[in-house]
Design goal:
This protein is an all-alpha fold. 70% of the residues lie in helices and 1% in strands. It has a two-stranded antiparallel sheet with strand order 1-2.
């Protein structure tokens, strides 16, 4: 068994040092938006997605420094989504990771620009990563743009989160919620896993195993988030709680209750763990990560 908490802590410390180097401050007034970008990226966080990407890449012998630009670009894109998600027009949150959200620390206009800046900078970092072969970089850029986008990616999932309504049937509602979770939360987790496989030029069977794993933990992660919104400790979670009911959000918890949500999360975790059997003991860190997601308190 791996010591996941220690592994995550060690990885985060190293990654935080490395990602800081991507934010030199301009001299002029435009430095404000770079400061807001850096504030949001460096404002805590578990670094779950870059850790996941690097662990998946490591399955195929890819070292941390080679995977780093892909991991950095992913965390930048994730941070952009959090900035925009917290805005008054979206979830209207004052706290992120226990600290003021970007629009509260700076202002709403700066927060919008900071999100835009991180989104575009993510692709610059990825496309110019000379440690990654050009054809692999191109594939990663394509996958990341799809994962972030409006057709089957994170933007589509956020749209469903804002506007999805119950269908009146259990099967129909479960289908909508599954699509929402897969796109809003799961899509970047899938990218992290698939990017690791692409970096390692994995055979299709192993790449598909990681995609299957990512879809299971993506659903579990969102269910865990929804349960924490109901039952979590705000000091540990680091953001305003009890907002799903207040905003009439359409989730597994709100539609079917916490007990059913927990049972589904356990089932998905077991399926995530078993999907990695193809890798043997090398997959233990990823299997432990699946178990961490279902039991997390933040």
């Amino acid at each position: 068994m791996t010591d996941l908490k220690q592994n995550l802590s060690t990885f985060s410390a190293r990654f935080n040092q490395d990602i800081q180097t991507y934010f030199p401050r301009p001299d002029g007034a435009e430095k404000r938006v770079v400061e807001a970008m850096a504030y949001s990226v460096m404002n805590g966080g578990k670094r779950l997605r870059p850790y996941l990407l690097c662990q998946c890449a490591a399955l195929f012998g890819i070292e941390y420094q080679t995977a780093l630009p892909a991991a950095v670009s992913l965390e930048m894109l994730h941070s952009y989504s959090l900035i925009h998600d917290d805005l008054p027009a979206m979830d209207n949150d004052d706290l992120r990771r226990g600290k003021p959200t970007c629009h509260k620390k700076f202002d709403e206009a700066t927060a919008i620009l900071a999100g835009d800046g991180l989104l575009t900078y993510a692709f610059r970092v990825l496309s110019s990563a000379l440690v990654i072969r050009p054809e692999i970089r191109l594939t990663l850029v394509q996958l990341l743009s799809e994962a972030a986008g409006a057709f089957s990616g994170m933007v589509a999932g956020q749209t469903l989160d804002l506007y999805a309504q119950p269908t009146g049937s259990s099967a129909g509602d479960e289908n909508i919620i599954a699509r929402l979770e897969e796109m809003k939360t799961g899509r970047l987790l899938r990218y992290a896993c698939e990017a690791g496989a692409v970096l390692g030029q994995a055979p299709q069977e192993q790449r598909q195993a990681l995609i299957t794993y990512s879809r299971k933990i993506g659903q579990t992660f969102q269910i865990s988030d929804d349960i924490l919104d109901q039952e979590g400790d705000q000091n540990l979670v680091g953001k305003t709680l009890h907002k799903d009911n207040a905003q009439n959000k359409f989730t597994i918890v709100s539609r079917f209750g916490i007990e059913k949500a927990r049972k589904l999360a356990v089932q998905l975790t077991d399926e995530a763990v078993s999907s990695l059997d193809i890798f043997g003991s090398k997959a233990e860190p990823l299997q432990e990560l699946a178990r961490f997601i279902i039991n997390r308190h933040f």
